[in-house]
Amino acid sequence: MNQKLRNELExxxxxxxxGYFEGxxxxxxxxxxxxxxxxxxxxxxxxxxxxxxxVDGETVTLEIGPGRGAWTKxxxxxxxxxxxxxxxxxxxxxxxxxxxxxxxKYFHVRDFECGMLPDDHFDYMFSxxxxxxxxxxxxxxxxxxxxxxxxxxxxxFWMVADYEKYDRTVQSLEKFSIYSALMSRLPRFxxxxxxxxxxxxxxxxxxxxxxDKDVPGRWHNAGTDRTCSMLEQAGYRIVDSDVGxxxxxxVIHFGKP
Length: 257
Hints:
The protein is of the alpha/beta class.
């Protein structure tokens, strides 16, 4: 080792007494040296984990439930994007948001058969914020009918509803809610502290009031374990039962062998 590099190593000997500590990476809301720049959206985290490493100019992508097209925009680097939705593109204002990219095909579906899709065609599939509103029978039917449409070694990511995970999260809001992190930085009797506490607790009310009613668009409790078991029975391979980018909802990473 030359003297310059030796001196560089020796220069650290009086630094970082007790060991350098950036912050606790196992705590969702841990403070760090990045301060207010140390947090990102769960949606962006999902993009970084589930889309960016898998989608490029050679990828043929299938999206289930694009809605207005927020995730579709993230999928545009694909060679092709087939987007299936229970609502029309006009209803969703899809083209107003996404435009008319030549590599995107939008289908207004009337059933779960997926008959418009070519067999052995897709090497990537993504769905977020859609299947949580679909019954388990619907999800199961999709899984079966989409299997022959996927190429071998295709990567798939589905977000589904899981009441148990949701409940665990809302029962531990002090651990997961950004409002909790903000409150910890305010004086004890600050009015803003009480307002943030109210906002944090209102999420628990939302779960009890809205998610168990039999109304259109409701959440259907597919469950992480039950969905993974169903996917395995349909012939898929589970890569990760929950990638963990969303503290409230599971995102399942699976593939076709």
